[in-house]
Amino acid sequence: MIAEIGLAALWLAAALAALQLFAGVLALRQNQDEDGELARLVRPAAMVQALLASLAFLMLMWCFAITDLSVKLVAANSHSLKPILYKVTGTWGNHEGSMLLWVAVMAMSGGLIGWLEKRLPVRTMQATLATQGFVALGFYAFLLLSSNPFERLPIPAPEGQGLNPLLQDIGLALHPPTLYIGYVGLSVAFSFAIGALLTRNVTPEFARVMRPWVLGAWVFLTLGITAGSYWAYYELGWGGWWFWDPVENASLMPWLAATALLHSTSVLAARDALRTWTIMLGVVAFSMSMLGTFLVRSGVLTSVHAFAVDPERGSFILALLAIYIGGSLAIFALRAGTVAEGKRFAMTSREGALVFNNVMLSAILGIVLLGTLYPLLTEAFDIRVSVGPPYFNPVSAIFAVPMFLVMAAGPLMRWREDKPARIQLELAIVGAIILGVLAVVAVLGDYSILAILGLALSAGLAIASFMPLRGRKLARVPLATWGMVLAHFGVAVSLFGMASESAFTTERLSAVTAGESQQVAGWNITLESVDPIAGPNWTAMEARVIAQRGKGEASVMVPQARNFWAPAQATSESALLTRWDGQLYAVIGDSAGVDANGNQRWQLRVWWKPFVTFIWYGGLLIALGGALAIIGRVSTDLKRRRAVLRGTEKRAEAEQLKMEKIDGYGTF
Amino acid sequence: MRALSIALLAAVLAPLAMLGVPLTAQDSLPPAPYAYTQLEDPALEAQAVELMATLRCLTCQSQNIHDSDAPMAGDMRHQVRSRLAAGEEPEAIRQWLIVRYGDYVSYQPEVSSTTWPLFLVPAIIFGFGLLLLFRRLGRKRSDGEGTDRAPTSEESA
Questions:
Q1: Which one is the CATH code of B29-105: 1.10.8.10, 1.10.8.640, 3.40.50.300, 2.170.190.11?
Q2: How big is the A-B interface in CB pairs under 8 Å?
Q3: How many angstroms separate the CA of residue B29 from the nearest CA in chain A?
């Protein structure tokens, strides 16, 4: 029954998406400003669609929670002996479930703007919601026609096949949902951009409406990428935190586009410049989300040939991509000419800096896109090419280094036109810090150029990020400015962590017997014992490792080598010891035979990674900055609108009481 | 995130779901001596790490051999370390591996008949970016649009 309710809800949600599209289109064609019969349906359709899609998702979650083995998806991906947390999170640890989460988030984004966003002109709003319905419709069709998550088995399975043990981790509870909210939340920016383009309403007012939604998606995307990176770091057992893997790139590309978009939106909101550019980025950002979905969900990454053999799902998403990306670019090409580019500005101005960095972000996006797609293209012609960190790091740095330099100076500049001489003191300080660190690090050790540059730029950027506060009364600095300061500081913190990890990590791999000690970067590491233990669906060899720094207090670390039996697979559970200046990372491997005295030896891997945690602290700071900016922008905007409203009210005294009641300016 | 994404992918492609580390393959043979042991000489080991980070594990997905649990990556690490210890140059070892396994084994970017677009396109992006910036920023404001007005609340924020 539960699965059938879910399926019915999904069909109904799809029908409402269709209604949302047609009502919106017809209302637009009728060319009326006031609510017509149909136009009144658009918002409720979006909201009810959100409820139904959420209901469908909850029903699937329920099937997983009670391990309903008559549902094909549950039988293929779950197991009755799994801990309940992983049963529930397993809902989205598979293709169909994650696509259902995708459309549920899409429907909820549409429902939220339908419910809360009342600041835009009616027609723009209708076009926006119609676009949202149009995009959702395609993905509903994909789910219902080729990836039905609620399919029943003719005979219920006696036992499920289990979930990949690497996914049986708290990371699965946090990373996909946050990432998807960001990923799919960008659909709102896409719909707003198309809506504004169709109704010729690309104005600063429009940008102010769109901004909190873009910021919201961007905050979640930042959190999702940060969480995913940390999860990979501790779960995979080798201490790497970013691999330029296609699936990671699929999440990085929308982030780069969204970062450019939110800065460009700010220019449009503040200065009425960069109109077409902002619309373009709104289209590109969500296009990157859809492209990522294609890469991850079509199977094309495992092998282009596997994709060619069973192309149903992949072709379906590819067709959706062609319709949505192609269609939006066509609308853009047709309509962009009617949108004036907006106000002009000088090269040395805040807009100038923002435009420069927008171009740099777009260039990095282009590099990542190229490096991700190129090997897939050549593989189709049976030429296998490897594109990895040795390509991505230096090539993206060509654009990232100038970007960080401009990022340090940009927030100090005035809008429209500024003279560099006005901020020469600040520029001199930042420049001196960067060159100073560069010189010191280069002299002290033999590190890679990128690591040295990263350390120097992070130091300069960290100082520069607080400079916009100089000479201002801190209590009167707007919240949004604090948000910018924190986010920029977060970038510096993260960059410092990355550079430090890459330059200063020390590694110790060894085969040791119980009682034997190793030294790594001032730590004394002793393997005390290795004992078998058992968990709910695994057995493991658990090592007790005593770590002591100099003469300090000794800490116990307990890394495990786990063997899961459903499905049968081995994982390394690393043990982490966090200090303010870094992390000690220990992994126990296989048995390495016996030593001369007949004692059992074990492979022990230990790393000391100075300041590695700063990578993720930085990510959290960036997200926090974004959240502050949302609160600041929304509250300022609401205050301003209330003031305007009050002015109008005074003029229309007779209507005053009524106006108070329908003071419909939502919370966003 | 790579192996996690592989895991996510594997879960998607259920019949192929053994992309991780199957137990049987791992236990059948003891790993080669230098698979999990560093070289004594720190300078040589640093060279080994640098080289291993640019070599692809052929049985994994988007993983280098320096951080992979796959048995084959262990064997390749052993090859790299023992050959370095025997006095071979890192690039000679890379060439030896390329001869055996093809260009695919190396992540080191090299311009060749199959990879030139990877270098041409960034150059074009660079040129295009410069052009865009010059067109947008290079010329002085010619029109006086919006020059004389008070800053909005947004601008002074």
A1: 1.10.8.640
A2: 222
A3: 11
